[in-house]
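Hi Y.,

Following your request, here is the sequence exactly as I used it, all 304 residues.
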Amino acid sequence: MATSLGSMKLAAALVVLATAGCAPSFYQGPLPGAPQGATYAQVNGTRVRYVDSGGKGSPVVLLHGFASALETWNSVRPTLEKQHRVIALDLKGFGWTDRPPGDYSPRAQAKLVAGLLEQRGVRRAAVVGHSWGSSVALMLAMERPQMVSRIALYDAWVYEEQLPTTFHWARAQGLGELLFDLFYDQRSDEKMAFAFYDPSRISEEFVEDVDRALERPGTTAAALAAVRGQRYEDWQSRYSEVTAPALLLWGREDRVSPVDIGERLLRQLPNAELKVYPRCGHFPMIEAQSASTRDLAKFLKGDS
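Below is the corresponding structure, written out as tokens. Let me know if you'd prefer a different format.
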């Protein structure tokens, strides 16, 4: 009884501390330290950073994962650009894109992607997503099926059952803000090591880039809003609606999104195949760069 009472007091104290502090703030406009020569578009009131290779090949759009940016695809883009027009963007709240107040759910992000593609004159494209970006890709395919010719998903994060307990707690006002403060106090190299089969593949430059990104104004507020928008139970039963050809690319040793998630998605998508890479964690485009990029390029040839 004493232990239970003590736990209740601790929980109450945490809530008081959380609600007493200032909520993280959002941010819009040019961010300090933005790269020279970056390209931006105003989409649905949000300033979006993107790259567009141009060219006459069939379009491919690349969607990064949670708390990441379009640089996720640096090792993939050169190969794809030989045959395709490649567009990559920073999703709302991440990279060098705005962090405005509002909806950060996969549906809202998919609307942002569709808006950018329409501005760029793209009516139909192959869509490639990584981790949380896969939920945006699937939402786009469900909401705008005429826009998605093919879909490729790396180590998808798309089911309610994947969400850690802390993500559910983060939905509570006040408590979520406190949890995110604690989360962002952890070193990025410790968090990133969990996502790799071989942590020695994580360069110091990569860790420093992540740390700098998390320090940009509005990032904590945006990331928390994105977590609160991950209510997969509301739409995960609809994935079978996605009839476009699908390729699932997975690291066999992924601890963030285990391969059984890929097998589950394979059963749910009516026109999918699964590629699994040994000695690889959550980032096949890094730990299985040659094999996964070759498989992706071969899959996308169906649109060439």
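Residues 38-303 form a domain with the Rossmann fold fold (CATH 3.40.50.1820).

Thanks again,
Q.
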